[in-house]
Specification:
InterPro entries: LysR-type_TF_proteobact-type (IPR058163), LysR_HTH_N (IPR000847), LysR_subst-bd (IPR005119), WH-like_DNA-bd_sf (IPR036388), WH_DNA-bd_sf (IPR036390). It comes from Vibrio gallaecicus. This is LysR family transcriptional regulator. By secondary structure, the chain is α/β, with parallel strands linked by helices. It folds into three domains: 89 residues, Arc Repressor Mutant, subunit A (Orthogonal Bundle); 101 residues, D-Maltodextrin-Binding Protein, domain 2, CATH 3.40.190; 91 residues, D-Maltodextrin-Binding Protein, domain 2 (3-Layer(aba) Sandwich), CATH 3.40.190.10. The chain contains nine helices and 14 strands. Strand 3, helix 5 and strand 4 form a beta-alpha-beta unit.
Length: 293
């Protein structure tokens, strides 16, 4: 037997037992009188006892009917409490937000965003998976993703946050010691700090395969080496923006950098009833980058 049908019949009976009038109860419930009567009969059959005494002029409850009404009212109250509890929790900006972002984006932007957001909503906390792993947000329990891409997933709601390019940078000390490249081919004579997956640097006039004393899959470590005067680095412009502005790093072959051909998107699954914490955080992120621009 379907339990949900039994509960439905019980709730129909509770309304009837309170009104003791089939016509009025059916109108309140928005169903036909005959359907209500049939469902009550089925409930009586399931419980194997009469719940009502029906006459041509009145309806009254049997002793068993009184007991079923009392239990039914308790169950209805518990359901209403559950609905209110879930609804209240759904509308609060509190609890856990699970995010994923690349390490560079998390370092430059995401931790700052989360700290600012928490100052406004102290009951929120974050779980940030900072990696280049591509998660399935519908299966992996991630609420919101931040990814560098020009083709965000079509099955996600996507918002473009920033555009950026890849700049070549080096410290003033390195350029003073080893000279400043004036053309792309000069890079063959320099220590180039490349990532493990990209030793081919795409530039405007040509693509060039570079080499250097070290390569790594960790951009933060490569930036530290560039700051220490140990080579030329090709990196996302937003990741070295502060260092370039304060003179710790200088642009190299700036005319060879392909302008603003990359983007970072925020995306998340389509949600019919998004939690308040999701809606408020997403808008906060949009405003953060709007103000920055």
């Amino acid at each position: 037997m379907n339990e949900h049908k039994r509960i439905e019949r019980l709730m129909l009976f509770v309304e009837l037992a309170q009104q003791l009038n089939f016509t009025k109860a059916a109108q309140t419930l928005g169903i036909s009188k005959s359907y209500l009567s049939e469902q009550v009969k089925r409930l009586e059959a399931e419980l194997k006892c009469p719940l009502l005494v029906r006459t041509t002029r009145s309806v009254r409850l049997t002793q068993e009917g009184e007991r079923v009404l009392a239990q039914g009212l308790t169950i209805r109250s518990q359901v209403l409490d559950l609905e209110r509890s879930v609804s209240d929790e759904h509308e609060k900006v509190s609890g856990l937000l699970r995010l994923t972002a690349t390490k560079m984006f998390a370092e430059v932007f995401l931790f700052d965003i989360c700290q600012r957001f928490k100052k406004i909503y102290p009951d929120i906390c974050f779980e940030i998976n900072s990696s280049y792993t591509t998660f399935n947000l519908n299966q992996d329990g991630i609420d919101i993703a931040f990814r560098a891409t020009n083709t965000p997933p079509e099955n996600m709601v996507a918002t473009k946050l920033i555009s950026y390019q890849h700049d070549l940078v080096a410290s003033p000390a390195y350029l003073e010691e080893f000279g400043r490249p004036s053309q792309v081919s000069d890079l063959h004579n320099h220590q180039c700090l490349a990532t493990l997956h990209q030793r081919l640097w795409p530039l405007l006039s040509e693509d060039i395969t570079v080499s250097g004393w070290v390569s790594s899959n960790e951009n933060h470590l490569l930036k530290q080496q560039a700051l220490a005067g140990n080579g030329i680095l090709r990196i996302a412009s937003y990741y070295v923006e502060k260092e370039v502005m304060n003179g710790e790093l200088e642009l190299v072959l700036a005319d060879e950098c392909i302008e603003m051909n990359n983007s970072v998107y925020l995306f998340h699954p389509q949600m019919i009833y998004p939690a308040q914490k999701h809606k408020v955080f997403i808008q906060f992120v949009r405003d953060y980058f709007k103000d920055r621009s």
